[in-house]
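Researcher: We plan to redesign the surface later, but first we want a full-length starting point. Tokens attached.
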């Protein structure tokens, strides 16, 4: 069994999630690689695929969307799981990462095209020192720090549990 965990990450948080997922696979004896969608190898070399993207303004990053669209046939022929990373906190309108309102706009299209086994939203992380110019400007606005709070909001236990579900679906025995 060989799995590829692909990601699109602007500031590194999504990349770290993908690397954690790949390492969790490896601890269970599954050959797994984590790579950027821009440096993705041939999918024919893998039995299963996990793809994650940072989410901005309700959308996956463009290179991740383009990767899925360009590799639609290969992805539809193997088990695929999707994850999104982005919300930093929940608000009055959204009280759970399972809220359909957090689902990026492209996920419906992907469900029809490649039939992923699951899509999960994970909290992200924000380090102001890594922000690009436009995001630094947003944080200077009066409400910007509330919109983009500093901190690491990722729930590693939740990510590990989700990865365990993938391992079970692939019929990989649990580590004893």
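Model: Full-length starting sequence:
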């Amino acid at each position: 069994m060989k799995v590829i965990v692909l990601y699109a990450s602007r500031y590194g948080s999504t990349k770290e999630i993908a690397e954690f997922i790949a390492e969790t696979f490896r601890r269970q004896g599954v050959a797994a690689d984590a790579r950027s969608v821009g440096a993705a190898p041939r999918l024919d070399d893998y039995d299963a695929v996990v793809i994650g993207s940072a989410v901005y303004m309700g959308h996956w990053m463009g290179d991740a969307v383009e990767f899925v669209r360009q590799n639609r046939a290969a992805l539809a022929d193997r088990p695929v799981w999707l994850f999104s990373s982005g919300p930093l906190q929940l608000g009055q309108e959204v009280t759970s990462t399972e809220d359909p309102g957090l689902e990026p706009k492209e996920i419906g299209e992907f469900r029809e095209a490649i039939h992923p086994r699951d899509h999960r939203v994970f909290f992200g992380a924000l380090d102001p020192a890594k922000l690009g110019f436009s995001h630094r400007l947003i944080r200077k606005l009066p409400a910007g720090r509330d919109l983009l709070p500093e901190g690491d909001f990722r729930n590693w236990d939740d990510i590990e549990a989700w990865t365990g579900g993938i391992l079970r679906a692939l019929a990989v025995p649990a580590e004893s």
